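Dear U.,

For the methods section draft, I wanted the exact inputs and outputs in one place so we can describe them consistently. I've listed the two proteins in the order they'll appear in the manuscript figures. Please don't edit the token lines directly; just add comments below if something needs changing.

First protein:
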Amino acid sequence: MPQLNIMMYLSFLLLGGLFCGRMVKHIKLPNVTGYLLAGLLMGPCVLKIIPGEIIDSFDLISQMALAFIAFTIGLSFKASYFKRVGIAPVVIAVFEALAAVFFVQAVLILCGFEPAFSIVLGAIAAATAPAATIMVIKQYRAKGPLTDTLLSVVAIDDAVALVAFGFAITIAKGMGDTGQTNLLLSLAQPFLEVILALATGSVLGLLMILPLKHFKKQGNRLVILIAFVFLNSALASLFGVSELLTCMMAGAAFCNVSPESDRMADLADQITPPLFLMFFVVSGAGLDLTILPSIGVIGLIYVILRVAGKIAGAYLGARIMKAPSQVARYLGPTLIPQAGVAIGLTIVAQSVVPEYAGTIRAVVLCGTLIYELTGPVITKWALTKAGEIRNGA
């Protein structure tokens, strides 16, 4: 197929995603599943309508979408909510993330795989992708204790995953230590990165209040919203910390000091649908079907044990915190999706266990393919079983 103008490919993303999103509704599947399938069909693995090099050029779309997703999650973190639910979401997030890590690590080591490799790959299992989950919640207007807990857990999960991975790579490096590594600094680094991300987001979230005092028209406020979300993402990238955490904290800081937070959330909802649609279509186009045969036993252990860990950890955490029964029973299955953060961690893993870099990337990409295609469907099922999506929605 001849090289087309980039705007043509953008139109393919929008129209293809819109069409497939409508088609899957006829079989009661979430829109996001249709968007991912649209990308998979148009991408290099199937119809080759969108070449691989074009997909790589769409990284900015993914960065913008994830920044808005994280910011809007943060807008739901009002102090009044946490006063009502307490620390339950934090405890549940820690349990579900670490259970997935330990399940994968333990079984890999018991099966005889090299410990450093098992520790690093298992640590990536903690990461959960909030984007697909949030899209399902928004599409079906899910409401209830499970939805409230889920929104909090998927946001906190990113922090837990980063800290867990930081400790894992420190341990893995220590197994082949040359005596040049400062162990204390290595252990402290993931915590320092999380603190810097939260501090950056807090400052920008508070600063966002100032221009809103002087610009009252909706168009001007839209400009301010976009500018500050992008600024959060850019500074996080500049500082080398989590963009998701930074943007989430900006939203959380803003919503707790400004009465305009609900209006800004409504404004974001009006402009983000096409951005989110393109993000998922691009994500689908980036899925590589050819890696499926290459994952073997390691891939099966990772894909299955990560899910088992998420379900068991979420159940145990919810029971300990005496959360409602529907939270304990159905939260775990909603935490299956995994994408951007996990793929990013594979890049770091390459420098820790370079001899296994190809295997780790293949396993995580294959897991992404499976989780992103099945996760939204399972999330819808879980929310429906919990009674938080109306029958027929």
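Second protein (the one for the lower panel):
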Amino acid sequence: MSYKITRKNEAVTYEAPGHFDVRTTRLHNADDVNSGAIVMGLSHFLPGGGCDYGANPKETIYYIIEGQMYLESELGTENEVKTTLYAGDSYHCGPGTKKSIVNNGTTCTQMLVALVTPQA
């Protein structure tokens, strides 16, 4: 298949490992298109909801649509970023980067997530 359209009522919910107080929905999988490498999802984090500190093997982009998320991320051996991302902010990291996110606001946060599988 060379393209895929996902209507808002067609998004699939799933349980993401290490996540808590969140509803994760999958919009697109890499195998939806020929030679695809991108996975895209929309996550809805309740206040206090988030993801435990850890890494995944994919390049990652977070885009905050609504609300806010507190981010902790490594930048190398001894460097670390600790900041709050607000609506309109984004975060991009390479494969294997350790990070955690937590909704530190008082309302639900909507976050678009893009995961890119490194090409061999």
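Candidate sentences for the figure legend, describing the second protein: The two ends are 21 Å apart (CA to CA). The chain has a mean pLDDT of 93.

Thanks,
Y.
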